[in-house]
Design a protein that fits this description.
Length: about 550
């Protein structure tokens, strides 16, 4: 793929660099450029990608950074598998002699991550595995060595203590309403594959999932993954969700009470239950292709310990071109998600270049395919340019509030690492306080690119403006919540996520400044951030120190 720098859109490169302060004007201009129709919604593997990557390389070159990839390259290849299911010739559950035909998107929603022409499951037994959690550090195992090979695992969504009352033994063991990684659907599918299941289905409920059935079914049978080696392929022919009422009927037909099993699954002595006489069958055509995409990597080399890396991240991709909205707009340009985050990182890079070279190296990773499942950052983690045991921290920006200055900053992932103590200290210097995310049960900590680093033990900090209501200087918490509700309810992943004249980036600049401050201190110290004792990632941290 050839990356051409679109010279007609590089006006912001000629702007003078402020030596003292981050520039809201420059951040706004960069966001406007990246979210313009010229980039066609920045979908991976498209002309929009060619233009986006070329633009980003041009920006980093103009700022004065070096290529951050291997062999002095600005890019890192990320090969993506794209699959789409066709019309099923069979999609059903049988219980004894009773056949229950299911419709894709109604009773069930499935997709595949295997590059095969058909997704087939032939009369596989269904096994209910509760929440499907294997967490030795919490003395919890839902599987009890059950054999899932050739079977379809059926899960509950979220954690075992999500619905627990205070008098239940599990209460608080998995963070209460705060979702742990064990509650994420991605973990459940991964665990089912590790145990050899042929399929995995999660029972949907809106409170536990954090979104309605319409969101589950919205990809319309599409899925993405990185291209994997044969020995790393998932064992799952199909993975997906069962609609709540359909699941209740299925369990009842198999002689089980789903409501009672929900309670049983909240006990550590829970054992998997084979749904008596229930079998799942599917035969669905699959189209599949490999999409060649790219991460963009740039760096500032450290003056004393260049092999130690402070890593900044944001994602360049959005949702490309889709169906027209009510106004006829088809390009989903992702102005806030995440052109604004990319603009923030470019401004941080400019600011670093006005200062003496940091002791440690600074690397900027602008990722592809975040919207397809954090795939660009996962591709990097699977083939890191910089050793992970020498990566000090990852600082990620993904969506910022655009309603003005705030008295607080929202913390995503409370209790994970001592980077949150750094956040509180620098926020205090701004005259601000830290507010924990308001809906931790939605698991936002596990839904941005920093998480790819966290899974490998690298301490992380995520700045995400939709995680809670900002206490705005103009309008307070009520106005902050109104902004969150308006953005998430109307424009998140939609064509109306576009730059507008009503944007006020003073609050975004506050948050970007905090990320600069944290990274600047880390880059000029010998300190290694640490996971807190309660974090599920503490045991994964490996640090190579001389």
């Amino acid at each position: 793929m050839k990356f051409l720098i679109p010279t007609l859109l590089l006006s912001s490169l000629a702007l003078p660099v402020a030596a003292q302060d981050l520039s809201a004007t420059r951040i706004a201009e960069t966001t406007q450029v990246l979210s313009s129709d010229f980039f066609e919604g920045r979908a991976p593997g498209t002309v929009g990608e060619e233009r986006t990557v070329g633009y980003l390389i041009g920006q980093f070159q103009a700022i004065g950074l070096e290529p951050g990839g291997k062999d002095e390259s600005w890019v890192q290849a990320a090969s993506l598998l794209h699959t789409k299911l066709g019309k099923p010739s069979k999609l059903e559950v049988t219980v004894g002699e009773k056949v229950l035909p299911w419709q894709q998107g109604e009773q069930v929603y499935v997709s595949t991550l295997r590059a095969q022409d058909r997704a087939q499951i032939d009369s596989a037994p269904l096994v209910f595995v509760g929440y499907g959690v294997s967490a030795p550090e919490r003395k919890w195992d839902d599987f009890k060595d059950v054999d899932l090979k050739g079977k379809v695992a059926v899960f509950l969504v979220n954690d075992p203590d999500f619905e627990a009352t205070s008098n239940e033994a599990v209460s608080g063991r998995f963070g209460g309403k705060t979702m742990t990684y064990y509650g994420r659907w991605t973990y459940k599918f991964e665990e089912a594959s590790r145990r050899g299941a042929i399929g995995a289905l999660i029972v949907h409920d809106t409170p536990g999932a954090g979104y309605g059935w319409n969101v589950v079914a919205s990809p319309q049978g599409e899925n993405y993954d990185i291209v994997r080696a044969p020995d790393q392929l998932t064992s799952l022919a199909l993975q997906g969700w069962i609609e709540g009422e359909a699941a209740t009927r299925l369990f009842a037909d198999a002689g089980q009470n789903l409501a009672a099993l929900r309670k049983a699954a909240r006990r550590s002595d829970f054992h998997p239950i084979t749904l008596k006489g229930a079998r799942f069958s599917a035969d669905i055509p699959v189209t599949h292709e490999v999409v060649q995409s790219h991460n963009v990597l740039a760096r500032i080399v450290g003056s004393k310990r260049p092999d130690e890396v402070v890593f900044y991240g944001a994602h360049w991709d959005a949702y490309g071109i889709g169906p027209a909205d009510a106004n006829g707009k088809t390009i989903r340009s992702g102005a806030n998600d995440d052109a604004l985050g990319v603009a923030g990182l470019l401004e941080i890079a400019r600011h670093f270049k006005q200062l003496p070279a940091p002791e440690r190296s600074i690397v900027f990773g602008i990722w592809t395919a975040e919207e397809r499942g954090l795939l660009g950052s996962e591709a990097y983690i699977n083939n890191p340019v910089y050793p992970l045991d020498k990566t000090v921290a990852n600082l990620t920006i993904d969506i910022l509030q655009t309603a003005g200055k705030a008295r607080n900053v929202i913390l995503v992932g409370v209790g994970q690492s001592n980077l949150e103590d750094d956040l509180a200290r620098f926020a205090k210097a701004q005259g601000r306080t830290v507010t924990p995310e308001s809906l931790p049960e939605r698991g936002l900590f596990y839904r941005a690119d920093h998480f790819s680093f966290a899974k490998q033990g690298v301490p992380v900090m995520l700045m995400m403006g939709i995680a809670g209501a900002s206490d705005l200087v103009d309008g307070g918490i009520e106005a902050g919540q109104r902004w969150v509700d308006d953005y998430t309810g109307k424009c998140y992943h939609q064509p109306c996520d576009a730059y507008g004249p009503d944007w006020n980036l003073e609050g975004a600049v506050q948050d970007i400044s905090l990320m600069f401050d944290i990274g600047h201190e880390l880059a000029n110290s010998s300190r290694w951030p640490e996971w807190k004792d309660a974090s599920e990632f503490k045991s994964r941290r490996r640090v190579h120190q001389p």
